[in-house]
Amino acid sequence: MTPDAAPVTYFAPAKVNLGLSVRALRADGYHDLHSLMVPLNVGDDLEVRGAGTLSLTVTGADLPTDERNLVYRAAQAYLQAAGVTGGAAITLHKRLPLASGLGGGSSDAATTLMALARLYPSGVNLATLARGLGADVPFFLLGRAATAAGIGEVLSPTPVPRTALVLLNPGVEVSARDAYIWLDAEEDFSGALDIEAIVAALSNGRPVPYFNALQDPVAARHAPIRAALRALEEAGLHSPLMSGSGGTCFALAQNDDQAHEAVQALSRAYPDWWVTAACTL
């Protein structure tokens, strides 16, 4: 592709953790996890075109556009591994809240790898590059619901029924590092999730028997997250849960109409919060 070719737009989906168990602290400082991770139909967009050098522009958020940005590092890693002499002009349209537990940065990085593999085809193993960029990046490379184990890199595709839900972020940015430090201090590790029971409940519209091991230590320190969980339930949704390390919370709806009605009610009640309807992919 020539540098003056039109950019191609790629969708970078958000994810939610339909349950997150932190089973142990490993000797290397990482954690053994067990989670059901599901991509959503909401997320960020990236525009990518060939160029003589690598450049990154970001809209919708005040983010760095150099090696401090995971998109830039992903692009750099691919171009170097593929031996590409040219570069790429990338524009990241950030639509998800920052540090929100929705995997936005990891999804953007995975989408960058896939976009550049189309722009500059090569024999580079994208999964290897993804693992070097972050624990959640391989999941977004997989592109479907999966049970995650290890530090999140051991993925088993897991069919999940289409589920309507509402995402609610009260404007709290939570550092994943802090969330795990708080959990480690309490040593409140947990057993494996019952994935079969979770999927069965999703299929039948029943309350879902999941939990997030990080929710209590994070919510204890951030009152708005506690308020968001209550607000979702008061809006008539069920099975409220914090996603990842927060601060986005979500709850399930019986159908798309109920999700959109809840979004309207929550938007009126909490005009300063980020809220959207979504569904699993």
Automatic annotation (TrEMBL):
Residues of the GHMP kinase C-terminal domain: 208-271
Binding positions (ATP): 97-107
Keywords: ATP-binding, Isoprene biosynthesis, Kinase, Nucleotide-binding, Transferase
Span of domain GHMP kinase N-terminal: 69-143
Protein's name in the database: 4-diphosphocytidyl-2-C-methyl-D-erythritol kinase
Keyword Oxidoreductase on entry: no
Family to which this protein belongs: Belongs to the GHMP kinase family. IspE subfamily.
E.C. numbers: 2.7.1.148
GO biological process, one term: terpenoid biosynthetic process
Pfam families associated with the record: GHMP_kinases_C, GHMP_kinases_N
Species whose genome carries this gene: Deinococcus arboris
Residue numbers annotated as active site: 15, 136
InterPro entries: GHMP_kinase_C_dom, GHMP_kinase_C_sf, GHMP_kinase_N_dom, IspE, Ribosomal_Su5_D2-typ_SF, Ribsml_uS5_D2-typ_fold_subgr
Gene name in the database record: ispE
Catalytic function, reaction form: 4-CDP-2-C-methyl-D-erythritol + ATP = 4-CDP-2-C-methyl-D-erythritol 2-phosphate + ADP + H(+)
Keyword ATP-binding: yes
SUPFAM superfamilies tied to this protein: GHMP Kinase, C-terminal domain, Ribosomal protein S5 domain 2-like
Entry's Gene Ontology molecular function annotations: 4-(cytidine 5'-diphospho)-2-C-methyl-D-erythritol kinase activity; ATP binding
Function comment: Catalyzes the phosphorylation of the position 2 hydroxy group of 4-diphosphocytidyl-2C-methyl-D-erythritol.
Coiled-coil annotated residue ranges, if any: none
Pathway: Isoprenoid biosynthesis; isopentenyl diphosphate biosynthesis via DXP pathway; isopentenyl diphosphate from 1-deoxy-D-xylulose 5-phosphate: step 3/6
